[in-house]
Amino acid sequence: AQSVSQHNHHVILSEAASLELGCNYSYGGTVNLFWYVQYPGQHLQLLLKYFSGDPLVKGIKGFEAEFIKSKFSFNLRKPSVQWSDTAEYFCAVNVPGTYKYIFGTGTRLKVLA
Amino acid sequence: DAGVIQSPRHEVTEMGQEVTLRCKPISGHNSLFWYRQTMMRGLELLIYFNNNVPIDDSGMPEDRFSAKMPNASFSTLKIQPSEPRDSAVYFCASIPGGGGSPLHFGNGTRLTVT
Predict the structure, then answer these.
(1) B34 closest CA partner among B73, B69, B85
(2) Helices (H), chain B
(3) Does B105 sit within 8 Å of A44, measured CB to CB?
(4) Cα dihedral B37, B18, B112, B63 sign
(5) How confident is the model over B32-90, as pLDDT tens digits?
(6) How far is B100 from chain A (nearest CA, A)?
């Protein structure tokens, strides 16, 4: 069965620090990959997605993620975080053409002003 | 695009009462998902509909939970009778097609059962 691991459960950073959140998945075939952000009290919103092509994908709000197939990883990065990035971040995997979306347990990011 | 619309946003009820959560997917999306989010278990898929037909309800916790999709623009998730352990945020999500596209989530219903 597919699974998604997000190793960092809680991350605290100061404004302007760089961010990298880890995401690893277990599935040997082709996958679609997503990062979602959930601001306090709100719904999950898509940050970025990877289907194929350039393994470095850019999303909204200055976020980017790199797909490394050999490592089964899809880490999220942002060069300089802002206080408004305080939120929970979820990595998700989907096998193309199926309805199964597997979510990681999430990483809570707190950015100190 | 009005997005996925869920109601109510918050529901507080007493144990044993019936609870009905509602969802209107994005127009043209023919796949609908109900998820439950808790601190302990994260996001869990409860049930998946495609073209109004329940395809996978293996995530529904027990017989107290039921879901319907009478037409392409409306779905309900019912809990009867409700229990305190059902307290969670329930999200509805939709996509066009049968899979692969990013999920579009509603704002969720925060259910508290006392």
Answers:
(1) B69
(2) none
(3) yes
(4) negative
(5) 999 999 988 889 999 999 999 999 999 998 899 999 999 999 999 999 999 999 999 99
(6) 5
Type of residue found at B41? R
Out of B55, B99, B102, name the one closest to residue A97 (CB).
B99
- Which tokens sit at A71? 């490592």
State whether the Cα torsion B76-B87-A93-A108 is positive or negative.
positive
Q: At B105, which amino acid appears?
A: F
Reported as a single tens digit per residue, the pLDDT across B2-31 is 799 999 999 999 999 999 999 999 999 999
User: Any idea which residue has 């069965």 for tokens?
Assistant: A1
Tokens 């969720």 sit at which residue?
Answer: B108
Closest-CA distance of chain A to residue B39, Å: 9
Q: Which residues pair with A58 in a beta bridge?
A: A64
Task: Return the structure tokens found at B69.
Answer: 């999709």
Contacts of B100 in chain A (CB under 8 A): 32, 51, 94, 96-98
Comparing alpha-carbon positions, the chain A residue that sits nearest to B38 is A105
